Amino acid sequence: MKILGLSLSPRKDGNTVILLNEALSGAQQEGAETELYSIAGKDIKPCDGCWGCRKAGECHIKDDMQELYTKMLEADGIIYGTPVYFYNMTGQGKMVIDRTLALGGRLANKVGGVIAVAGSFGLADTVKDLYFYMITRRMLPASFIAAYGGGKGDVKDLEKCMKATGDLGREIVKIAAKKFEYPEGGTHIAYGTHTR
Ligand SMILES: Cc1cc2nc3c(=O)[nH]c(=O)nc-3n(C[C@H](O)[C@H](O)[C@H](O)COP(=O)(O)O)c2cc1C
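YS: structure for the whole thing
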């Protein structure tokens, strides 16, 4: 069982990474193999909307996203961690999310968790957007952590939050062990009444 913690913060070793590491140590306690991947300092370009991935089954942009694709595909569970940047995930995080279009339906049935951290506002909006994203990928959303911390390392003082974060990691392993599967033949795009 592999759990990937994916930090979408450009700040090295900040609050998002601290919380993700806490969740991953919880996951390790449940017997999972874990890895933290931080996008800080990585070369990840935005999706150019070419839709070539639909035909080719892969993204033509050869940058650090290629190594991240492999890690995401190998994981049974992915914990997306992001700071709030103006009521949403970071711009860098959104670029990662958009680039996963190239994985088509291959994230389906993976368990997903969310960790969002903000100085003061925008947590609910950020968590919600990552949940909607997971639904389009047919992932199984687990719980989330919404933490308040502005300065680097502030979240370490949030005793209850740190405990809950470890619990999230543990729970994701337990959920993944149940081997949830969506029914065959469905679409990985969320259903909408606006479509014909
Ligand atoms: C460009 C930018 C935008 C931000 N926007 C918000 C915001 O909308 N709401 C908020 O509460 N904090 C905001 N923050 C503060 C960060 O969410 C906060 O410092 C967080 O702890 C950073 O996480 P990190 O240490 O993992 O990078 C912003 C920070 C930056 C750099």
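YS: worth flagging: The chain has one domain: 2-177.
IM: good catch. Also The CA atoms of residues 88 and 130 lie 9 Å apart.
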